[in-house]
From TrEMBL:
A biological process term (GO) from this entry: intra-Golgi vesicle-mediated transport
Keywords for the protein's UniProt record, in alphabetical order: Coiled coil, Golgi apparatus, Membrane, Protein transport, Transport
Annotated Conserved oligomeric Golgi complex subunit 2 N-terminal domain residues: 27-101
Protein name stated in the entry: Conserved oligomeric Golgi complex subunit 2
Coiled coil region boundaries: 47-74
Keyword Protein transport tagged: yes
A cellular component annotation (GO) from this entry: Golgi membrane
Membrane topology: Peripheral membrane protein
Homology family: Belongs to the COG2 family.
Stretches for region Disordered: 1-22
Cellular location(s): Golgi apparatus membrane
Length: 277
């Protein structure tokens, strides 16, 4: 059999016998298949410069595969005892896996129990926060009602209702000529009611104390309007409110009759409308 020669030698044709057979391509390099990013398409594209038919390439690849299989069998046969030892070291692995599985199941149950406890505590905290909010609202309502009660008591004292003053009566005494005269209660200073802060209202013509009583009554109505008209406490104070309102309207009416200036009378009429509203 004649010796083969391969491509890749000298380019000079003087070293090649004219009667020698055609050159053969070099055998495939095994290292080309060991690349981590090996791609068959790119590998075949790199063989475009090989003067080799597709059938010859397939034959060479089959021979290479058979060679690798034979080497693998020889490797197993040569290291058979080592393979047996490896198998014996893996014995009992199923039991260990089962132990791990049982441990994981127990851990999962504990986690689920903790989650249930956390969910229960979260619901309890949410309920407590809801109750706290409701109590805070009720506390605010109670404070507002106490303020209304205090203002009612103060107005009753200032209108002498607690002393038996009847609705419709005033502290004003009519003179012999029929004109209304303001009583001492509207003129003299008292410890709880000073006119100093109302000195700026003297030019308006409206008696300072009457204006102050009106403002206090309107403030009381404003506070009561924040609550439902059907609230038991508000309903219980209806008679007291009406009593104060009637006395205040009587005092305003007396002041209107006494006032000679039309402009001031108009102001008092507006005040009366606000009290009646």
């Amino acid at each position: 059999m004649s010796s083969r020669f391969y491509f890749g030698g000298s380019d000079s044709g003087s070293d090649v016998d004219d009667d020698a057979p055609l050159p053969f391509p070099k055998p495939l390099d095994r290292s080309a298949f060991l690349a981590p990013d090996f791609d068959a398409t790119e590998f075949l594209s790199s063989l475009s410069n090989r003067f080799q038919t597709l059938e010859d390439l397939q034959t060479e690849l089959r021979e290479l595969s058979q060679t690798l299989n034979k080497e693998l069998v020889d490797l197993v046969n040569d290291n058979y005892q080592d393979f047996l030892t490896l198998g014996s070291t893996l014995s009992g692995g199923e039991e260990r896996i089962e132990d791990i599985r049982l441990g994981l199941l127990g851990f999962q149950r504990e986690v689920n129990a903790i989650r249930g406890t956390v969910a229960t505590r979260r619901n309890e905290v949410a309920e407590l926060l809801k109750r706290k909010k409701a109590l805070r609202q009720e506390t605010g309502i109670a404070r507002s009602l106490l303020e209304i009660a205090d203002r009612l008591d103060e107005l009753e004292v200032k209108f002498n209702i607690s002393k038996g003053r009847a609705p419709g009566s005033t502290d004003d005494a009519k003179s012999k000529d029929g004109t209304v005269q303001w009583g001492e209660d509207w003129v003299e200073n008292t410890n709880y009611d000073s006119d100093d802060e109302y000195e700026s209202d003297e030019d308006s013509g409206v008696p300072p104390r009457l204006r102050r009583r009106t403002e206090e009554f309107l403030m009381l109505k404003q506070l009561m309007s924040r609550h439902s008209a059907h609230h038991p406490f508000i309903l219980a104070q209806d008679s007291r409110i009406r009593n104060i309102q009637e006395i205040l309207l009587a005092d305003i009416e007396a002041a209107i009759k006494q006032e000679p200036q039309v402009k001031i009378k108009q102001q008092m009429l507006q005040i009366r409308a606000a009290v009646e509203g």
